């Protein structure tokens, strides 16, 4: 049996209940929805003659960690003759998918699934072809290596490209990497360590002066220090002042170093984000990324600014105190330290639980930020469709999850930490009891002053232990934050520049696609075997339905993504061999989706070429037809646009985008639905600007409005990722194929509204 999903004894019993012997099953798979898209368990088995589908629910009985029994309650069963099954495939929907086929010429939905079962379904289609189509299918071991999950704990990797599990990774390596950021501040760190040692020394001396020395020396008539009250008081004050001074110096240096380390960390993370490929951003929401860069960096800052110095100071102090206590009285010291192992175990358990709770809280916080970001960015759409109630409910759910998870953290903190503190407090009770008995009986020469000093040292020992409880809170939070940030830092771009890239002396702009294939999702081709060429200085138009793959061709040419198969050549050189700088400075794009940064209009145009003069900017704006409206603004080219500043219309933004492309002066120009959202008058102005821009350049025009492509040197039609037609406008009209149908439909639509082409 080819066991794509886990085939347990419950599945065997379920199939036997409908007359299918488990030994006859050749391929098995399971999905997580039934045929009505309801959450359920669906079992699919292929034998030599038939394909069986069972829909039901798996029930589990027994205690976790003990013997567990699974049963499958069958609610519905279906069977299909393999001879009648044709075109077995997986069809993806927005958030779900379907396993479909043609049976007796009629379309059938065999099973449904969420994205969690999609991978197994795709593999099932591949291997079910053996018994269904009666052909040999070779087993590929790579298909059964599910690299999405950690082999040690079974949890899903946060980043499939980075096989590191947050739970199983070595935390020491994580913190070693964090400390590497502070290597440039060695002198400051050394000063901090010296100050911490001084603080610990002062902390150890002070209790001795105020207890044992005061009671046994100053207040004892036989001692030479008898009656020296002012000396003791002055010494106590000096020790306190020295401790405050050293503590202030330590805090100032720690804050400076921590701030610089956090700055370096943010800079490194942002630099890592900038070098990543476009696919990284399409898979993540803006709110979540902003949360990672800002909040996680601040979490790390406070950990190193407050947590680490306090931890080092208290650790040194605790070791010194324990040594002094054993020197003073080994027996009493042993009694006071007996509680430490129990306390350490409790803290360890708290840490494990807090790490999990903080991870959940962060995930909820990121979801809330993402929901908020989506709503604010798409507020116009929300209003247009009157979806305020639904969006409020969605935000409320995300907010409730965060509140619930935050409450769980607080609840656990307020119960576990006081309990741990009480455990440590028991050491005081032990010292009072044993030490008091020793003073009363005179055992080991124990005096009242020595007992008071011992109790002071026990308090000093407990203080770091209590602080350790707080450190657990900081440490777990910082661990989660650092792990998330290093996920970004270690992420590898899908598109990488060649180590020794080719640099053309002068790019002419000849473009050629050779049998290009591409998939955003493995197994689902968006571009399938497309080949065409465009001579330098010529224009090619790309037409097709929405989602056919037109914009993907532009993305592949700019190398925002890499092809799966085939080659894309510019002047005979594979784009994968060209440097990013060479490629991007010679390819300009004007798309329907314009984006302008917060800043002046001049800065936005100059974004294409930072070394351009003001005269260059004005010249580009004139060609783009933007100069006329810019000079009418109060500050002209120095007018600030963006959030909180001047708001521009869609047509004005588009003309600034065209001016940006003019300033770049590319050899290859891509026009991706550049006028799709414009009114007729604005479109004419922009079309005129685009015609000036495209003169003498290799131009790739993508448009729904076919009349704009009539003057192109060549047209290609994209349909379901393939290129069924190509030729000039007249040639394609004579063919009366896909292009002809599209053109005719548009003509009829225009005639219906009184517009003649």
The total of helices stands at: 21
Spatial shape = flat
What summary fits the major beta sheet? 6 strands, mixed
CATH architecture of the largest domain: Up-down Bundle
Cα gyration radius (Å): 36 Å
Outline the fold blueprint.
Elements: E1 2-3, H1 9-16, E2 27-33, E3 39-46, E4 50-61, E5 69-81, E6 85-92, E7 96-103, E8 106-114, H2 118-133, H3 171-180, H4 186-218, H5 229-275, H6 278-282, H7 286-328, H8 330-337, H9 340-377, H10 379-384, H11 388-441, H12 448-490, E9 511-518, E10 527-534, E11 539-544, H13 550-557, E12 565-570, E13 573-574, H14 580-585, E14 587-591, E15 599-600, H15 601-606, H16 614-623, H17 627-630, E16 640-641, H18 650-664, E17 668-672, H19 680-694, E18 698-702, E19 714-719, E20 722-727, H20 729-735, H21 738-752
Parallel strand pairs: 1-2, 11-18, 11-19, 14-17, 17-18
Antiparallel strand pairs: 2-3, 3-4, 4-5, 6-7, 7-8, 9-10, 9-12, 12-13, 15-16, 19-20
């Amino acid at each position: 049996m080819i066991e794509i999903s886990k085939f347990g004894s419950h599945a065997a019993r379920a199939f036997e209940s409908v007359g299918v012997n488990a030994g006859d099953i050749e391929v098995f798979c399971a999905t997580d929805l039934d045929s009505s898209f309801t959450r359920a368990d669906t079992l699919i088995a292929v034998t030599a003659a038939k394909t069986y589908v069972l829909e039901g629910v798996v029930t589990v009985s027994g205690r976790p960690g003990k013997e567990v029994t699974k049963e499958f309650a069958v609610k519905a069963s279906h069977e299909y003759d393999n001879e009648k099954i044709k075109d077995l495939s997986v069809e993806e929907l927005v958030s779900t998918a379907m396993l479909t086929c043609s049976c007796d010429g009629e379309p059938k939905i065999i099973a449904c699934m969420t994205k969690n079962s999609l991978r197994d379904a795709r593999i099932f289609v591949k291997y079910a072809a053996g018994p269904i189509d009666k052909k040999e299918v070779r087993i590929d071991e790579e298909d059964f290596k599910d690299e999405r999950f950690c082999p040690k704990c079974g949890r899903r990797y946060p980043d499939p490209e980075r096989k590191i599990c947050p739970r199983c990774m070595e935390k020491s390596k994580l913190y070693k990497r964090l400390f590497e950021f502070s290597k440039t501040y060695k002198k400051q760190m050394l000063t901090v360590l010296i100050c911490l040692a001084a603080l610990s020394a002062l902390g150890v001396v002070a209790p001795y002066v105020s207890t044992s020395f005061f009671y046994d020396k100053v207040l004892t008539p036989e001692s030479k220090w008898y009656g020296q009250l002012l000396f003791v008081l002055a010494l106590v004050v000096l020790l306190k002042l020295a401790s405050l001074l050293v503590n202030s110096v330590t805090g100032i240096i720690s804050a400076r170093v921590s701030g610089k380390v956090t700055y370096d960390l943010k800079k490194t993370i942002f630099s890592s984000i900038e070098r990543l490929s476009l696919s990284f951003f399409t898979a993540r929401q803006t709110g979540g990324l902003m949360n990672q860069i800002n909040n996680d960096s601040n979490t790390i800052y406070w950990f190193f600014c407050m947590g680490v110095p306090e931890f080092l100071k208290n650790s040194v102090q605790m070791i010194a105190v324990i040594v002094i206590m054993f020197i003073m009285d080994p027996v009493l010291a042993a009694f006071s330290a007996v509680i430490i192992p129990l306390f350490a175990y409790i803290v360890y358990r708290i840490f494990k639980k807090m790490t999990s709770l903080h991870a959940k809280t962060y995930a909820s916080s990121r979801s809330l930020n993402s929901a908020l970001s989506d709503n604010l960015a798409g507020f116009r759409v929300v209003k247009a469709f009157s979806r305020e109630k639904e969006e409020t409910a969605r935000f409320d759910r995300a907010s409730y999850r965060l509140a619930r998870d935050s409450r769980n953290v607080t609840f656990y903190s307020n119960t576990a930490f006081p309990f741990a503190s009480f455990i440590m407090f028991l050491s005081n009770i032990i010292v009072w009891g044993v030490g008091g008995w020793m003073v009363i009986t005179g055992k080991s020469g124990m005096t009242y002053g020595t007992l008071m000093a011992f109790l002071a040292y026990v308090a000093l020992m407990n203080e770091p232990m209590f602080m350790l409880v707080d450190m657990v809170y900081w440490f777990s939070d910082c661990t989660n934050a650092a792990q998330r940030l290093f996920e970004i830092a270690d992420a590898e771009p899908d598109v990488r520049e060649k180590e020794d890239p080719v640099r053309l002396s002068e790019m002419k702009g000849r473009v050629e696609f050779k049998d290009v294939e591409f998939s955003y999702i493995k197994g689902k081709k968006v571009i399938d075997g497309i080949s065409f060429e465009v001579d330098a200085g010529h224009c090619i138009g790309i037409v097709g339905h929405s989602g056919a793959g037109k914009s993907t061709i532009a993305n592949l040419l700019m190398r925002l993504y890499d092809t799966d198969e085939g080659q894309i050549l510019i002047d005979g050189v594979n784009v994968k061999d060209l440097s990013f700088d060479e490629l991007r400075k010679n390819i300009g794009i004007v798309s329907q989706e314009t984006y302008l940064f917060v800043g002046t209009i001049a800065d936005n145009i100059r974004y294409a070429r930072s070394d351009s003069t003001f005269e260059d900017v004005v010249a580009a704006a004139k060609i783009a037809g933007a100069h006329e409206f810019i000079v009418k603004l109060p500050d002209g080219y120095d007018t600030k646009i963006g959030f909180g500043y001047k708001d521009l219309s869609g047509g004005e933004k588009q003309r600034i985008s065209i001016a940006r492309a003019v300033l770049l002066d590319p050899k290859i120009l891509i026009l991706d639905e550049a006028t799709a959202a414009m009114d007729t008058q604005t479109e004419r102005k922009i079309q005129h600007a685009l015609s000036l821009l495209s003169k003498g350049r290799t131009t790739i025009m993508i448009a729904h409005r076919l009349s704009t492509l009539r003057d192109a040197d060549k047209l290609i039609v994209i349909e379901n990722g393939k290129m069924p037609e190509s030729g000039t406008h007249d040639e394609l009209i004579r063919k009366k194929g896909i292009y002809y149908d599209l053109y005719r439909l548009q003509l009829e639509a225009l005639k219906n509204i009184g517009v003649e082409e």
